[in-house]
Here is the input.
Amino acid sequence: MVTGRRDAKLPVWPVEARLAALLPDLLVFRKPRGSEPELATAQGVLLGVHVTGFTALMDRFSLTCKSERDMDKLAHIFSYYISDIVEHVLCFGGDILNITGLSAGRISQVIVGDERQQYLLVIGRDVDDVRLAQRLAQANEIVLSWNCWMLCEQYMFEVEIMREDEAVKLRDMRIIDPFDFDEHFDKCLDYLPHYRTSAETLRTALELDPHSDLDQKLRKHIMKNLLKKIDEGQPVEYVSEFRTVTLVLVSLEFHKTAWMLHLCHLIQESALYISTVIEKGGGQLSRIFMFEKGCMFLCVFGLPGDKKPDECAHALESSFSIFSFCWENPAKTKLVSISITNGPVFCGVVGAVARHEYTVIGPKVSLAARMITAYPGLVSCDEITYLRSMLPAYNFKKLPEKMMKNISNPGKIYEYLGHRRCIMFGKRHLARKRNKNRPLLGVLGAPCLSTDREKELEAFQMAQQRCLHQKKGQAVLYEGGKGYGKSQLLAEINFLTQKEGHRVLPLMLKEADSKQCFYAIQTLMAIFFEIDTCPAYYRQECLQRHLRGIVEEQLHCLFNDLLFVKFPLSFKVSHMDDVTRQKKVKACFIKVLQEAARETPLIFLIDEAQYMDAASWEFLETLLSSMPIIMVMTLTPIFTLCGWAQHFLQSPQAILMPITKLATTSLLRMACWELGVVSIPQELQIYLHRCFGNPLYCEVLCQDLLSKDMLLFHDLQKEEEENSKWETLSANAMKSIMYSMFPANSEEGQELYVCTVKDDVNLDTVLLPPFLKEIAVSQLDQLSPEEQLLVKCAAIIGHSFHIDLLQHLLPGWDKNKLLQVLRALVDIHVLCWPDKSQELPAEPILVPSSINIIDETKEKKTKLDGGSACLLRLKEELSLPQTEVLEFGVPLLRAAAWELWPKEQQIALHLECACFLQVLACRCGSCHGGDFVPFHRFAVCSTKNSKGTSRFCPYRDTGSVLTQVITEKLQLPSPQDSFPFQMKPSRTQEAFSSECCRTEEEFLDQVKRKLAQTSPEKDLLTTKPCHCKDILKLVLSPLTQHCLVIGETTCAFYYLLEAAAASLDLSDNYMAFFYLRKASSLLGQPSAFSFLKKHKVKICQFEEATFCRLLSEVCFNMGHITLAKKLARKALRLLKRNFPWTWFGVLFQTFLEKYWHPCTLSQPPNNPSENKKNLAVLQQQLHCLSLLWQLYNLEATASSYRFACLATLMQKNSAEEFANEAQVVSTYVELSQFSQSMGIKDKWLHCEQMAIQKSSLCWFSREGLLATAQLMQALAYTKLCLGHLDFSIKLGFQAREICRHLKKPALENLVLSVLFRSAFLKKKFGLCVHVLESQWALISQGYDVLGLACFYSACLDLLLYGKGLLFRPFSECLRFVQIYEHSRVLTSQSNVMLGVHSSLAMWFAQESQWGLFEHYFSKACQLVKRTNASLFGAHGFVRFLECHVLMLQKIPEGIFMHIPLELRSQTLEYFKEFFSRCVTCPVYHQWVSELKASVMRCEKREFMSLTNSIRPFDTCLTRIWTKGEFLQENNS
Here is the structure.
């Protein structure tokens, strides 16, 4: 974290200058004098600057910071503080020896080390004096050593003698005569040979010419991991990281009698040994500090590039080795103290640009220093090191608590005693215990195990069968990475085999066990003899009982040392040598096991078998070939096995079974089990991608979320209440989508839950649990330096990233180098292509770099002024081709790499990403660009003030450098950067528009011609497909995250609205809700009083209106009708167009819209920008009005009808004011559908005809093509309602083809619903099944509950009347209804649910389950009054009437307990209501007429009895369908 001039970029220096900046001039300009230790003496003045209270500040900061990530703030502050001191010293010609009084005299510089690594020490009497002066000085005091005071012009100073002959305190300066400082300083320059000669740099050392000898000399003083990054050319600001390390502080105190040269040799000897031992364990000796007659060695494990999974254990072992070495010669060393701590620290560069050092800063560094003082003469460690080392507890001893200066809570401290051999056996247990309530690997629905592990269990079962039948030993070894479920698999095998009556010997090994010969067999036999758990005094008797009759008694003493017993030594055994004894012991063990195997099969379960010693492997191989025994082991592949282990694996009786990662669906089901829910939200599913198929990672992440209280849980089956507040909709949003885990096998009456993420939680910035971060960082450090840098930069961008943006973040990288490193990372599966078939381009792709777009703003604007064609071409070149998009193959690695960046650098990189992506934040090229919220940028441009600066200007007053950069670089899109939304009509368009469609036939002829064309130049359906989904994923979604991280909430709000609009455009309602919830959190909590409302983010009125409109649409899709209406009204009010609340207001507004509004239409302004702004407002008004009539149309009341009619009238007037053909067509299509649903036949057909007449130019834009698809769907719908079924099917297929090209799943699903109904009524059941297959593919992608209800309604129709066709089982349909019938989405859709409940009632009638029939029929009765004349409403009404007729037919049989007396008259009233309501749906009229006729015959006892019929109304409906009277093509 180098700091210098705050407003300047760091210079680009050669390697030698970068090395010199890390070292003092004392080293840069020295001349080597011989072998180490090298001792040189010089005269000099030492200035010791002591920063008091730093430890206390760090301790206080560590207690108050909210997360470990905040620790780098302290490092940032400290670096700025130190840099000012460093620059002052350098300005006056000083040299910074160490970034850590005043003294003068003889100073000795000592260089210790070897040819690979060297360290500079400054020692001598005067160095000790300056340390004494430091200790005596208080805050803001200057203390001089006595020798320094003797060399001063004493008459010039007022001093206070603190200690005679030791130190004086400076109080004041006496300057009597005028003092010429410049003249004085010129004299001093004679003693400063390396003072700077240029005003542009503070040090001459930075301007030295490159020289190989100098380069090699400087490299010896810099740590190797830093050298690698410098050689790689990484910028100095990219070097620093925030990571967890293990610190080892070694303190050596020498005897005071030691003279200087002897002291240097002691330090040299210690430094060589310590560095050798530390490097062998995976650490580095960072630096050496001197104190009086002693020195300290700071060693670090886990620096960048050095991370190992077991670094704590290595640190402890290395420390104990150093401790033992230093105590070997007490004559040399007076006291040895070592402290080990583990925790997060800042590892990076601190100081000024011209002089800085690579160091570690953090509370754990201070704790290690305090532990040295508190526990002298010991190897002490903190509790975290003790726990993470995973070493046996008997190797530690808890130390008493002691007060430590400025450390408020040091925690438990332990003494490490080294590896000790304890007289004990291993424990009979496995790493995991089987949970009887949990299936294997957490997959719900399987009886006892997961389908993902059936193959592995089958391998064990096959080996078991071979062992029993062939009487030969069998071994199954499961090999897989850590956390893949090997231990869980062993636990399942342990349970199954014990259940079958086998004798199982379970054992789990640890790394330390591999160093003890024959340990695994010793423990297994102790478990076999059952002496591992019995008291020591009973052990011998228990063993003797097992050996009696199998092993002769005089051989019992062979087991004394091995099994810790004391049998008398026999004469026979006393004459055996060691080799003979070992062979005899093995033979006895085999004999005992063979005898036991005759009674019951033996099974050895060995977890973590890679830690087994060689002697045990040898014995197991012998055992395997000599008796029928089953061995099941687990292995981790990263370990190198010994020779005997490899020989064991090559045995024909051994099977090596790899354990693979879990599939994504299985992992999500496991996450559901861990959280106790049946569904998790999409953002949580994305978060759990970090697991990468590893069950352990999934478990840890879920437990971490629970421990941090980030989730809320909701009862899935609880009836939802109508919400009046947006802030409480999270649970309902989850219930509005399909469940992730199908609870088909759950018990009846079991409570089902879903979970949501709390509103104030951003999963993108949730830190990894320490356990997973350590794993990921160790994997990252296995990469080369350039690969690490690439991964870290890609982690800033996101899970998916574009190559050009990645190159933008890698300074100095050309495309060839980038592709080379990318290929290497793809080969090792760190990165991957979203599509496996894609490959890296062989040569760099010449795409205009976005760097030019950001840096050359003036040139861009000049070119754009020439015409909009340049802008369109530029943005098409900058679109994101899939071949240049990669994603992380190991998402956990991405999360860990992101956390390594210090906060300041992290923000700077996110800012670069935001500036790059801003250019691409628009619709794709095939959609002709533009904002997802139409004309969004034009509507917000007015927020800039009159001076022309952006609305971020108020942030300049904060003084923050970063926010000033943001103000200069990150601004909202300007109107000049936008795409032209409507190009001038071409000749083809003009010619086509002259042939205006007058009739339906002409329109359909045009559609037919267009679909038949095959030329790419003419056929719109053969052009580029829509990539807006990729834009949302790769641009908008990351852009919002970048803006949030850098704190630019205004831009974040803008792009959150864009992302929400894009999600709705792609029919993803939940993700729209997700983005709007983020936007809502930016605005802050609303006040209870409107006059107190104040948003945290300053937004314009248009954006607030758009926010409300998008919220209204999301609420509508979630079934919250009241809240949706409230938000739509509010949006209209903000858009300066009110919607009345009362019936009188409706009458008055209707009068105005009919007679006054057409007269007030004005010409658009001449200003194009102002015109676009008006269009933006008008477009949002149209959306709001469309929502309002749909919302009121769901309520079958007279009042709602009036409001809906007014909304449609206002929408029509606004569309005509818009003067956009596609919008007008869409509006007339909506009005047509509204009129049909309300039974207004004339207006229905008139609006449809108007839409046809306005559709001339709809083929020349994507928006127009969408309007055409909507019109095609409406025509297919109309033909179905009128009974022209073949025509409807034909139109439906044409409409679906356009929808698939446009990637509009919601519209395509609606088309498929019409297709199914037409095919069903036409009795084309094969086509029905085909349509349902397509519909299921759409629904399963979109998690749409309403679509699923329509789908299951169609499945029920096939079950009832499709001649036995079964597309989905009835139990699945019923289970869906039981789970989701209380969802607000379905309770608001009375038309659909009337058909569903009536069909269920008919099914139960067919099965003669009359109680359930009455249950669902009663639910249908509650819905029938709330339906309308729409297709779904008419279909549900028909099913409801069938239920009524069936009840009338069954009355004589006395089936029903509670039948109203007026049932027949009530049924006839319903028939009358159907014909009066469903005027616009004549396709069902003949059907209903037949039903009514059957009721009339029922009264005269002339109907045919249906008691023994297979399906209700089979005879009646068959007769109707056979006649086909109501399905004739010429019906009107």
About this structure: The longest helix spans residues 1168-1193. Residues 551 and 570 are 14 Å apart (CA to CA).
